[in-house]
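Thread: Newbie trying to understand structure tokens

Hi all, I'm a second-year student working on a class project, and my supervisor (Dr. K.) asked me to get a predicted structure for one chain before our next meeting. I've only ever worked with sequences, so writing a 3D structure as a token string is new to me. If someone could post the tokens and maybe explain what I'm looking at, I'd be very grateful. Here's the chain:
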Amino acid sequence: MSIKKAIPNNHETLTEITKKSKAYWGYSNEQIEIWSEFLTVSKEYIEANPVYNLIVEDKIIGYYSFFHESKNTIKLDNLFVLPEFIGKGLGKILMNDFLNKLKNTEVQKVILNSEPNAEAFYAKFGFVKIGQIETSIKDRFLPIMELNF
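---
Reply by user tm_fold:
Sure, no problem. This is what the structure looks like when written as tokens:
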């Protein structure tokens, strides 16, 4: 198992991981298609942002990406693993790698918009809910979460 920087040609694999992981939470194929634009990882996105792949036996099975909101604030934009690996500790490996990258930097805060079903996962790392965003699905809100260093 290793974590390596993504290359632009990984975009289709990362988009597939994102859509399959999102569908894991019971969203219909129609809903995933409606969200397709937001669940797509483009070559340009990978070129512009830090994106790291989790590789097991030469296969990308998960990834995370982030960007600077400001000098001292990072936004964790994505953290996904294929459904067959959810609950096996690999998301934790990705999160720990991400947080370790921030050590000894000027970063003071990490923010993210969580999948509602993943809020407890982020809370285990010390993230706290500071708000929420209404989504296109009636009565569904994305928790806005924050971790201060």
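A couple of things are worth pointing out once you decode it. The chain has one domain: 2-148. Strands lie at 2-5, 51-56, 59-70, 73-81, 109-113, 128-134, 141-148. Feel free to ask follow-ups in this thread.
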